[in-house]
Write a structure and sequence with these properties.
Oligomer: single chain
Distance between the termini: 9 Å
Order of helices and strands: EEEEEHEEHHEEEE
Shape: globular
Number of helices: 3
Bound molecules: zinc ion
Number of domains: 1
Strand content: 25-35%
Structural class: alpha+beta
């Protein structure tokens, strides 16, 4: 059974429970929206999906279909089971936060993925003790042979989606990245909403 399609509002965050074996589908509704994603063990929020541990486990900068991401305690947490996008995601860069926008010259409060994570978790009555690094879905950060990185526009199209299977009971959080200073969410610099669904184990 598929749950309702739930909106991750433009520039905001949302979190959800996903049970062991259930699937969570993340939809790039308008095609150029980066969605930062985090996953926590439902039993203990101090255990969470870790990009640095997963990169070592997979020996990859980008997980591909069939790959299992692991936690900071090196246990399986989510498996990427489907990806209709070109597979360009980022595991390297930190989520945006208030200070990031300050450094980009924004003077007023700017929505940011870090606060969106805390707010999404807060809506479920959950409070984290640490903020893990994010898995930046659909974010295009090409690298060069000598290790240089570029902040590029997404290469996804409307309706592209990824599906993860939960390998334990998890809380998954999303942020529709509000970056509108740089073209991370497309040349128009216009952050949009995205969507997700939680599906029963097949
Ligand atoms: Zn962001």
């Amino acid at each position: 059974m598929t749950s309702a399609t739930i909106e991750i509002p433009a520039r905001k965050g949302k979190a959800t429970h996903v049970g062991l074996g259930q699937l969570v589908k993340v939809i790039n509704t308008h095609g150029e929206q980066v969605v930062d994603m985090w996953a926590f063990s439902a039993d203990d929020l101090r255990e969470y999906m870790s990009m640095e541990h997963s990169r070592l486990h997979l020996l990859k900068l980008r997980p591909e279909v069939g790959d299992t991401l692991i936690t900071n305690r090196r246990r399986s947490i989510l498996t990427l089971v489907e990806d209709t996008s070109p597979g360009v995601h980022d595991t390297v860069l930190a989520a945006c936060d208030a200070r990031r926008y300050e450094l980009l010259g924004v003077e007023e409060y700017h929505d940011n993925c870090s606060d969106n994570l805390a707010n999404g978790m807060g809506d479920l009555g959950l409070e984290m003790t640490e903020e893990p690094s994010s898995f930046n879905l659909f974010m295009n950060i090409p690298w060069t042979e000598d290790g240089g990185l570029t902040l590029a526009e997404p290469v996804t199209k409307p309706g592209d989606y990824v599906v993860f299977r939960a390998e334990t009971d998890v809380v998954v959080a999303f942020s529709a990245c509000p970056q509108d200073i740089l073209p991370i969410n497309g040349r128009a610099r216009h952050p949009t909403e995205a969507h997700f669904q939680v599906q029963a184990a097949p």
